[in-house]
């Protein structure tokens, strides 16, 4: 099936994000989009027409025709769809979170290893210029403050804001901090959906680093910022404006009267994160290059997100017992 020049791909789940995956696969130089599958066959037909591939009525019929699947279905379906593909020896790119539970994610990881298949998790920020700009400058942070807020949109409300938005910053923080998590103290509330729409988490790592992360999908504006403090300096990033300021002693222009500190101003152009993710997936599948966001990274981010959710539940129980909320 594989011609070593192209990866035959199927997209599973072609809602908003799955459609974007299908469009990227259809245009990618090293991918051949074979078909799409969605429980809503009319939706599959619509996206298939748009991307020039075949719509499949049954997932089982798609698997024999492809080398790899991209799973963009709701989170609760990731495990079943992923396991079926991995057992068939197919490579898998699964959207975040890797699964609904740690045990499910671990089983997927074991299946990928057993069948020598690539299992990549869709944490898009790992492919961003902003991630590179931060990790090139800060290696041992002491304190991190991250904010990701946006107006309400019905899409994504099948999960809490922790798994929808905060998990992006959790993954970014975990990629910067080289230490296990010691404790998490979190608060959250459901406002416009059945799940938490706003959340704040204070994450303390075993090495002493602390990260304060806020996520909201009920704000009046969109804002994505991060501040990082370390012994090497202070970094402030505005992801919406694609700009970063780094106060340190080695890079940038001197700041008079500061005892030798310098100011570096960095800007970057937005890249197509989804295309970069597809390129990395193809490289791993066809050329056995290392998987940038593997199952281990996906599991670490999921575990952190689930622990944030459990801390939110504990805080809510405490507030109910005290009469603070009813």
pLDDT < 50 runs, ≥5 residues: none
- Rounded to the nearest angstrom, the distance between the terminal CA atoms is 59 Å
Largest sheet: 9 strands, mixed
Quickly count the helices. 9
Strand segment count: 15
Question: What percentage of residues falls in helices of 4 or more residues?
Answer: 25-40%
The helix/strand class is alpha/beta
Q: Give the amount of beta strand, in percent.
A: 25-35%
User: What would you call the shape?
Assistant: globular
Radius of gyration, Cα only, in angstroms? 21 Å
* Mean of all residue-level pLDDT scores: 93
| Helix-strand string | EHEHEHEHEHEHEHEEEEEEEEHH
Strands in their spatial order, largest beta sheet: 8-9-10-7-11-12-13-15-14
What can you tell me about this protein's structure?
It is a single chain. The protein is α/β, with parallel strands linked by helices and 326 residues long. The protein has 9 helices and 15 strands. Helices cover 36% and strands 28% of the residues.
Short description:
The protein is α/β, with parallel strands linked by helices and about 325 residues long. It has 9 helices and 15 strands.
Task: Throw out a few tags for this protein.
nine-stranded mixed beta sheet; alpha/beta; 326 residues; 36% helix; globular; six-stranded parallel beta sheet; 9 helices
């Amino acid at each position: 099936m594989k011609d070593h020049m192209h990866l035959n791909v199927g997209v599973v789940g072609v809602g908003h994000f799955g459609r974007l995956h299908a469009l990227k696969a259809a245009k990618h130089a090293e991918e051949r989009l074979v078909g799409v599958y969605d429980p809503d066959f009319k939706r599959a037909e619509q996206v298939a027409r748009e991307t020039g591939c075949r719509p499949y009525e049954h997932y089982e019929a798609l698997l024999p025709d492809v080398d790899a699947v991209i799973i963009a279905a709701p989170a609760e379906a990731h495990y079943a769809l992923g396991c079926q593909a991995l057992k068939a020896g197919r490579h898998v790119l699964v959207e975040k979170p890797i699964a609904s539970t740690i045990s499910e994610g671990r089983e997927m990881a074991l299946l990928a290893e057993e069948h020598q298949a690539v299992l990549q998790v869709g944490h898009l920020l790992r492919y961003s210029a902003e991630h590179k700009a931060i990790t090139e400058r800060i290696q041992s942070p002491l304190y991190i403050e991250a904010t990701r807020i946006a107006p309400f949109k019905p899409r994504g409300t099948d999960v809490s804001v922790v798994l929808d938005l905060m998990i992006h910053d959790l993954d970014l923080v975990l990629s910067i901090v080289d230490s296990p998590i010691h404790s998490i103290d979190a608060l959250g509330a459901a406002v416009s959906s059945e799940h938490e729409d706003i959340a704040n988490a204070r994450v303390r790592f075993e090495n002493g680093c602390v990260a304060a992360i806020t996520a909201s999908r009920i704000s009046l504006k969109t804002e994505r910022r991060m501040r990082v403090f370390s012994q090497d300096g202070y970094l402030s990033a505005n992801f919406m404006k694609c700009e970063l300021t780094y106060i340190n002693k080695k890079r940038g222009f001197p700041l008079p009267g500061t005892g030798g500190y310098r100011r570096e101003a960095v800007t970057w152009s937005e890249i197509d994160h989804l295309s970069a993710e597809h390129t990395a997936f193809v490289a791993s599948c066809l050329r056995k290059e290392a998987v940038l966001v593997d199952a281990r990274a996906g599991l670490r981010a999921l575990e952190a997100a689930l622990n944030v959710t459990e801390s939110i539940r504990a805080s809510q129980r405490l507030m109910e017992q005290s009469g603070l909320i009813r």
